[in-house]
Automatic annotation (TrEMBL):
<dbReference type="GO" id="GO:0006508">
    <property type="term" value="P:proteolysis"/>
</dbReference>
<dbReference type="InterPro" id="IPR029149">
    <property type="entry name" value="Creatin/AminoP/Spt16_N"/>
</dbReference>
<dbReference type="GO" id="GO:0005829">
    <property type="term" value="C:cytosol"/>
</dbReference>
<dbReference type="InterPro" id="IPR052433">
    <property type="entry name" value="X-Pro_dipept-like"/>
</dbReference>
<dbReference type="GO" id="GO:0030145">
    <property type="term" value="F:manganese ion binding"/>
</dbReference>
<dbReference type="InterPro" id="IPR036005">
    <property type="entry name" value="Creatinase/aminopeptidase-like"/>
</dbReference>
<keyword id="KW-0464">Manganese</keyword>
<dbReference type="InterPro" id="IPR000994">
    <property type="entry name" value="Pept_M24"/>
</dbReference>
<keyword id="KW-0031">Aminopeptidase</keyword>
<dbReference type="Pfam" id="PF00557">
    <property type="entry name" value="Peptidase_M24"/>
</dbReference>
<dbReference type="GO" id="GO:0070006">
    <property type="term" value="F:metalloaminopeptidase activity"/>
</dbReference>
<protein>
    <recommendedName>
        <fullName>Xaa-Pro aminopeptidase</fullName>
        <ecNumber>3.4.11.9</ecNumber>
    </recommendedName>
</protein>
<keyword id="KW-0645">Protease</keyword>
<keyword id="KW-0378">Hydrolase</keyword>
<dbReference type="Pfam" id="PF05195">
    <property type="entry name" value="AMP_N"/>
</dbReference>
<keyword id="KW-0479">Metal-binding</keyword>
<feature type="domain" description="Aminopeptidase P N-terminal">
    <location>
        <begin position="1"/>
        <end position="136"/>
    </location>
</feature>
């Protein structure tokens, strides 16, 4: 059970007096008619409440006189409950969120509470998570911000994203254990794919072995859409159609992740469908593996993700020049065009800036690659690293990646 009280205390310490924080849990979009997509909670709401519930609000007010935590949830509909089950009760939500049951209200009381609080309390700032990857994306938070500005023009609307990111990038022990468990399940799925692979199968057939491993372990969702990319598809960074028939001699690039308690694993492995790397495949694979080891050896507090990518680029370029693939460092971008790392946690591409110095407790990926389209060779090897006081710990070190280890997987029962 997450230490949500400690997290709330930390975010409150970052807010000035006279502030209100509003976080929304999200709501499943409608597919068509009465069918909706599967619900997944807004990760910021989940981080501070430990609640996996739809259409709810966490509201925290901080004034000179007191701090007030309120939770707004949907009322139970007895008729609807016979079809889809009961809505979470106040008692249930209180147990997980640590908010007193008397401070939990129903959703239809939300607007009145916000209006009354802003009218009667000395609230000068309202914080919402306003950061969005899409310009045209009108989120619920942006709608609330617009309405508050219309009705209470003297209140200052502020974005909370940076303050939350500062907290979420440093993982506590429970978060790290959740990530480790996600990686462990991912490992089982990857080995299940490789052991059952053979030429002539379709990519989606291999994906099914990963799906089974997750379901068997009680995992209902992926960390991200699985990538099972064979032959020419292995040179496409985020290929995920997974529909090609795999040919003798192909490399298969896997980029997969299980999700455990909403924490993600993110692992890439590349293997030969014919069970043995060709000399050329092994040459390219070893270059990527050596680069990955170099990045891991240098990952430590104080460095940034940007600097780690520069280390990866230098290593890849030097090796690619030695084998004649490129002549200048600048040509590397033809074969390596992404970054070597991102933060990992409640989101697969977790919150955090690539220019922020790494600190102990951060979890990052280490994923160099080479994508040679003209040869149909794509190699990516990815592990998940926990930054420690003096360096890093490879959380996915138990997943085979040496050439000899991979070629031996089929012989191990």
């Amino acid at each position: 059970m997450a230490d949500v009280k400690s997290r709330i205390e930390k975010i409150l310490n970052s807010l000035e007096e006279g502030s209100m924080l509003i976080l929304y849990s999200g709501k499943s979009p409608v597919k068509s008619a009465d069918e909706t997509y599967n619900f997944t909670p807004n990760r910021n709401f989940y981080y501070f409440t430990d609640l996996d519930i739809e259409n709810a609000y966490l509201v925290i007010s901080k004034t000179e006189s007191k701090v007030v935590e309120k939770l707004f949830i949907e009322r139970n509909d007895p008729k609807l409950a016979r079809w889809v089950g009961k809505k979470p009760s106040k008692e249930h939500c209180s147990k997980l969120s640590k908010i007193q049951e008397e401070d939990i209200s129903f959703l239809d009381e939300f607007n009145g509470y916000i209006g009354d609080t802003l009218s009667r309390s000395n609230i000068k700032n309202v914080y919402l998570y306003l950061k969005s990857p899409h310009w045209e994306n009108m989120t619920k938070e942006k709608q609330i911000a617009q309405e508050i500005q219309r009705l209470f023009p003297y209140v200052c609307i502020k974005d909370i994203s940076t303050k939350i990111a500062d907290l979420r990038t440093i993982k506590d022990e429970e978060e790290i254990e959740n990530i480790k468990k996600a990686i462990e399940i991912t490992k089982e799925g990857i080995l299940n794919i490789i052991k059952n692979s053979k030429p002539g199968m379709y990519e989606y057939e291999l994906e099914a072995y990963f799906d089974f491993s997750l379901r068997k372990n009680g995992v209902k969702d992926f960390a991200f859409k699985p990538i099972v990319a064979s032959g020419p598809n292995s040179t496409i960074l985020h290929y995920s159609a997974n529909e090609r028939k795999i040919q003798e001699g192909d490399l298969v690039l896997l980029d997969l992740g299980a999700q455990y308690n909403y924490y993600s694993g993110d692992i890439s492995r590349t293997f030969p469908i014919s069970r043995k790397f060709s000399p050329r495949q092994a040459e390219i694979y070893q270059i990527v593996l050596n680069t990955q080891k170099e990045v891991q050896s240098q990952a430590k507090p104080g460095l940034t993700l940007f600097e780690l990518n520069e280390i990866a680029k230098k290593s890849l370029a030097e090796s690619c020049k030695k084998i004649g693939l490129i002549k200048t460092d600048e040509e590397l971008s033809k074969y390596y065009f992404h970054s070597v790392s991102h933060f990992l946690g409640l989101d697969t591409h977790d919150v955090g800036d690539k220019y922020m110095p790494l600190k102990p407790g951060m979890v990052i990926t280490n994923e160099p690659g080479l994508y040679i389209e003209e040869e149909g060779i794509g190699v990516r090897i990815e592990d998940d690293l926990l930054i420690t006081e003096n360096g890093c710990e490879n959380l996915s070190r138990a997943i085979p990646k040496e050439i000899e280890e991979i070629e031996c997987i089929w012989s191990v029962s």
